[in-house]
Specification:
The protein is of the alpha+beta class. 46% of the residues lie in helices and 14% in strands. Strands 1, 2, 3, 4, 5, 6, 7, 8, 9 and 10 form a ten-stranded antiparallel β-sheet that branches. α1 packs antiparallel against α3 and α2 packs antiparallel against α3.
């Protein structure tokens, strides 16, 4: 089964810079088995940021609908303005005609000089029709002007409500992102201190995702962008690149690609904080440059279980996950991770 499609990363596509040799396992110290601390806060803020983004996008879509309504209303208003202009033109023509003919005076004189009842009735009808036309034109003009005024107020209110709603959603989103960024760099600072000391703090326990994976293999991160691939060259590595890099944010949960056992949790050295798992069939997977490990050596893990949080420890140019598939736990036996995962139904 194909893994969830990748999405654009929240960070620029960054490359790792791993050296040839890997530091050996180090002693775990500190808050093993703790409640997760800042790591759990980062995960919680990720969820809040995701929800805020969904709400913002829903508001944006609603705004597009409202914008369409406002544009349609504006087109109606323009037609109303044209109708009012035409009514004003009619009033002007009636007024000019009455001015030229002296208003109703010719018809009145015609009635006074009428020589027959039929001629008198024609004069009365002419006066009545002239007055009716004028009154109708005035009434229509006033109604149209009142309707235009009400519609313009309605359009302005709709635009103001739209701008206010979008501003509120944007501010909520910015606030969560600011808190998330602060928590991310606090987590990274703790990770850098562990790496500098060469001693891991122990597993940072997080509430595992509720998702029940039905497929035996998954991608190591859920939302990512691919950067440096297996075998690529460059100044960042002493030889060819030994894994596949995933551009992700600091604190993003890192998943076990399949069922296995933790054979190594290490801090310090070029890979920074890393976790190595052993899988059936004699394969090993490595997850490096982490900000935190959420498992201890010897633990059994399931496919999709969170085993760490992404970071930028060790020889790294920015937040990302360095992922390797190996034939042994040690560096130097790597194979192409993308091909290995593709054979197991996971296409990156």
């Amino acid at each position: 089964m194909r893994s969830r499609r990748r999405h654009p990363p929240l960070v620029l596509v960054l490359l790792c810079a791993t050296a040839v040799l890997v530091a050996g396992p180090t002693t775990a110290t500190g808050d093993a088995g703790g409640s997760g601390g800042v790591g759990a806060e980062v995960v919680r803020l990720y969820e809040e940021a995701s929800l805020a983004t969904q709400q913002y996008e829903a508001g944006r879509r609603e705004a597009e609908v409202q914008r369409g309504r406002a544009q349609r209303l504006e087109r109606l208003l323009e037609r109303e303005r044209q109708d009012i202009a035409a009514l004003h033109g009619d009033l002007g023509r009636i007024a000019r005609a009455q001015y030229r003919t002296g208003g109703g005076l010719p018809h009145t004189a015609q009635m006074l000089l009428a020589e027959s009842p039929e001629e008198l009735m024609r004069g009365q009808r002419a006066v009545w029709q002239a007055d009716l036309a004028l009154n109708n034109a005035v009434t229509k003009s006033r109604r149209a002007e009142n309707r235009l005024s009400a519609d313009e107020a309605k359009a302005a209110s709709a635009w103001q409500a739209l701008e206010r709603r979008n501003g509120e959603l944007a501010e909520i989103k910015r606030g969560i992102e600011r808190r998330l960024e602060e928590a991310q760099w606090t987590l990274q600072g703790q990770a850098d201190a562990s790496v500098a000391a060469g001693a891991c703090r122990g597993a940072v326990r997080l509430d595992q995702p509720r998702t029940a994976f039905t497929q035996p293999w998954v991608a190591p991160v859920e939302t990512y962008g691919l950067s440096a691939g297996f075998g690529s060259g460059g100044d960042r590595w002493a030889s060819r690149h030994t894994g596949q890099d995933f551009a992700v944010d600091i604190g993003a949960p890192v998943r076990s690609v399949g069922e296995g056992r933790v054979v190594k949790v290490s801090c310090g050295g070029p890979f920074g904080i890393e976790v190595v798992l052993e899988h059936a069939g004699g394969y090993y997977t490595q997850y490096a440059h982490l900000a935190a490990a959420t498992v201890d050596q010897g633990e059994r893990v399931a496919a999709g279980q969170w085993i760490g949080q992404a970071g930028t420890t060790g020889n790294s140019t920015g937040p990302h996950l360095h992922f390797e598939v190996r034939l042994t736990p040690q560096l130097g036996s790597g194979i192409d991770p993308r091909e290995w995962l593709a054979r197991r139904g996971v296409r990156l």
